[in-house]
Each structure stands twice: as structure tokens, then as C-alpha cells.
Amino acid sequence: MKRLFVDSFYNSKKKLNKWHGFNILAVDGTSIQVPDTIECGKYFGVSKNQNKTQTAVATASALYDILNDIIIDASITKFKTSEKELAKQHLDQINNEKLSKNSIVIFDRGYPSYEMFDYLDTKNMLFLMRVPSSFKTVQNIDSNDCILEYKIKRKYRKLRVIKIELSNNITEILVTNIFDENIKYDEFKELYFLRWGVESKYKELKSSIQIEEFSGTKPISIEQDFFVSIYLSMVVALIKDEADAAIADEIKDKNLKSMYQANRNFILGQVFNRIINLLVNAKLTRKILEIILEKSKKIRSQIRPNCSLERKNKNPRKKYHHNKKSCI
Question: What residue range is the signal peptide (predicted)?
Fold first, then answer.
């Protein structure tokens, strides 16, 4: 269902949101708190806290189209699964021509390796990746923007190294295979910070959609609920995209001081209330979506420019409440 949804979106969407003509994708992973049962611990794995207490935890990973708010691919798997291998699995799923061409994939600093750079180059994928200062390739580089070579599999490849200064006087180091002269040094900072969109998406999945609240304790139930939550997020994104376009068209000549968009939480509530019919009643699906869309055009929220997102806490642990899972 998810694959059909993604293909349908990109095949039918006439004008995708892009940055300098590129689709901006991000890969990121997160820990998912699952029911702390023996079965889940054996299936997904366990994490130890500072007190050496073990709790069942899974790893989730996603490939996300930041500017079009679409989760292209997602997975939930064992806690210790390699982030790099999950990223490759996501990227190998790209079979839509609109995505396979003219896309830039942004990664955080958990992904850099020579093998990963080579994999992306071999697939002709453009990337921007944050690396730690301890990464051997970038050590002893004084320039803020330079090109160097590295050797892998008996061949040399080029890598562009970019240093950017943050507002707190911290220097971040980025590496990329983007050598396009039309993308200037100063624009790479803007490009990298688009990655925060995937952080916002995980916040929505965990806080609003409650992806960590499950209807059962069996691993198969957890996997099913996970993908239903992903589907729910995609339905909300699709409705909001159409509602936003209608709102923008309506107010474009009104000279308003503020800009408005459809209220995501309202849409989410509407979809939650009808999720069963959306999943099992194909005949009603189109009608339900049309009703929600019309309501969403009227329930609006003000767009707040330059709104920043607080860094996520990667090590929370809350009590599992399977009876709180909404509607699923």
C-alpha cells in the first residue's frame, strides 16, 4: 500500500517542491520504544541504561522527502541494525524517475564512511553529509571549502569538504559530491538545515500520531501498527498539501499581513476518526478524503516563519500503554 501511495503521489504531482531544482531527501533513524516483554526483547533487542536495566527497543529508519512531506520508505527492525545498511535499503527502493534523478540526500553524522560515499557515487546519487571532526579525511583541513580525493576499491573519488559556522560559534563539517558551481558555499548551510524537517516528522510520529503506542504486544502487531502509523502520516500529508494549495490560491490577492496554512492537527484528528474505513473500505475512501479536504480548507493556522525545532532526546523511556493506541 505504501509503495502504491508513493508512486501515485510522484506520478500525479505536476509540480514538486524543490531546492535549486533538486528534490531534497533525508535519511534518519530513531529508537522506538516497544512493549517491554521477553518476546519483544528477543525479537527486536534490548537497550541498557546507565543503571544497567534492560528494556526492549526497536530501531526505525526512514527516507523522507522534506519539501513535499512524504515518507518514501520506512522500516522497523532490530535495535542494533546498522544505520548505513538501513539507509541503503531505503535508497535501493527508489524506482520513480522523478526521485532517482535530481535528488540530494542529506545525512547526519552517523552515516559517513568511505564505503558509503562510494555506494552513493556508484548509484549516481548526490549527497550532503555531516561528519565528526575526528573523521580522518577532514582532519588538518584549514579551508572552508575544498576538494580532496580518497581511494577506494583501487580507484580515486572526489569529495568536497565544507565548513560552516553556527550561531553558537561551533563549526560543522559537511562532505558532499555536489560540485555544481551554481550552488555557492553559503547555500550549503541552508541546505543542511533543511534536514531538520525529518526531525519534525519524527516528532509528529511520536507525539501526535503516537507511533510508540501499540494495540498489541506481539512483534507482528508492533510492525503492523508501525506501518499503519506511516500510512496515516502520508494521508495527512497528502490532504494538507491539497488544502494548502487551495488556501494559497484563495488568499493570494488579499494582501494579508500573515500567511495561512491548513491545520495539521485538525487533519490528523479527522483522519484518526476515520482510519478504519480508510483502511478497509475502498469504496468510501475517496468520499471520506474529499470531506476531510473540504473541512481542512476552512480550519487554518498562521504560518510562523523562522520557527526552530528543539533537538530530539534520543534516550527517553516512558511506560508502555498499549490501551492508549488511538483507533487502530
Answer: none
Residue 154 to residue 151: CA distance in whole angstroms? 6
Which residues sit opposite 48 in a β-bridge?
Answer: 54
- Cell numbers that stand for 259 in this block: 500567511
- The total of other beta-carbon atoms located within 10 Å of residue 317's CB is 13
Is 182 exposed, middle or buried (CB count within 10 Å of its CB: 0-12, 13-18, 19+)? exposed
> pLDDT class for 309, splitting at 50, 70, 90?
very low
Is the pLDDT at 327 greater than 50, yes or no?
no
Strand 145-152 vs strand 155-165: parallel, antiparallel, or unpaired?
Answer: antiparallel
Could you tell me if 37 and 217 are in contact, meaning their C-beta atoms sit under 8 angstroms apart? yes
Which triple of cell numbers denotes residue 117? Answer: 560515499
Within 8 A by CB and 6+ apart from 127, the residues are 104, 105, 106, 107, 117, 120, 176, 177, 178
Residue 319 above 90 pLDDT? no
Whether the CB-CB separation of 60 and 226 falls below 8 Å is answered with yes
Phi/psi at 150 (5° precision): -135, 155
Span 194-214, pLDDT tens digits: 999 999 999 999 999 999 999
**For the chain, how big is the Rg over CA atoms in Å?**
21
Residue-wise pLDDT tens digits, 50-61: 777 899 999 999
Strands 260-262 and 46-48: unpaired
Q: How far is Cα of residue 98 from the mean position of the Cα atoms in its chain?
A: 18
Ramachandran angles phi, psi of 316, nearest 5°: -80, 160
Pairwise CA distance, residues 27 & 63, whole Å? 5
- 3-state SS assignment for residue 110: coil
CA distance 188 to 146: 13
The more confidently predicted of residues 94 and 319 is: 94
Pair 140, 60: CB distance under 8 Å: no
Mean pLDDT in residue range 8-12: 85
